Amino acid sequence: MARRLFRRVSCISLSVWLIMASEAENTFHLFAVFGESSSSGTEMNNKNFSKLCKDCGIMDGKTVTSTDVDIVFSKVKAKNARTITFEQFQEAMKELGQKRFKGKNPVEALENVYKLLEGKDPATTGVTKATTVGGVSRLTDTSKYTGTHKERFDQSGKGKGIAGREEMTDNSGYVSGYKGAGTYDKKNGN
To answer: Which residues pair with 104 in a beta bridge?
Structure first.
């Protein structure tokens, strides 16, 4: 009876383990291609590995620092390589898990690391955005334009282009300022 219960528990934990590992692999692929247009997602560089550790909460600044992350990355990668594979990534997570979750056995520590990785995407906080502070937003809001500038935009705020300018040059061949443009044919009956 006890063996059957142990087998059921181990089967359940094995299926949970496989789901957690596949979630970790998905997170690995998302971070591997982040910022790397030529990356296939099968290998990750140190910059993206550090970003993953920071965004997922593995690097907490106390027990696991950026130096620890860089050391573990260098330890698990091949000697002359600049990237790691998913298998090497799992080794790195084991080492970082033991450091991050001290006092727990290696399996529990790795499970906790995988829980941190679950469903995470690369964050884009701190990315430079268009400034809309103070005077900039006031200057670019076309609904507040007055006078002749107001005529250059339609109701939605989209510019009319050259059609929005009141004075357009006449390229009809007549002298500028000539009021009888286009009347020659009418006058001569042609």
So the answer is: none
Distances in Å between the alpha carbon of 125 and those of 46, 51, 66, 142, 151?
A: 19, 12, 18, 29, 39
Residue that has been written with the tokens 């520590």 in this structure: 109
What is the distance between the alpha carbons of residues 73 and 39, in angstroms, rounded to a whole number?
Answer: 18
**Cα gap 104→95, rounded to integer Å:** 12
Helices 2-33 and 86-100, packing angle to 10 deg: 110
Q: Cβ neighbours of residue 77 under 8 Å, at least 6 residues apart?
A: 83, 84, 88
Q: Could you tell me the pTM of the whole model?
A: 0.57
Rounded Cα distance, 77 and 179, in Å:
82
* pLDDT for residue 114 is more than 90: no
Running DSSP on this structure, what letter comes out for residue 1? -
Q: Which amino acid is at 74?
A: S
- Give the Cβ contact number of residue 56 at 10 Å: 22
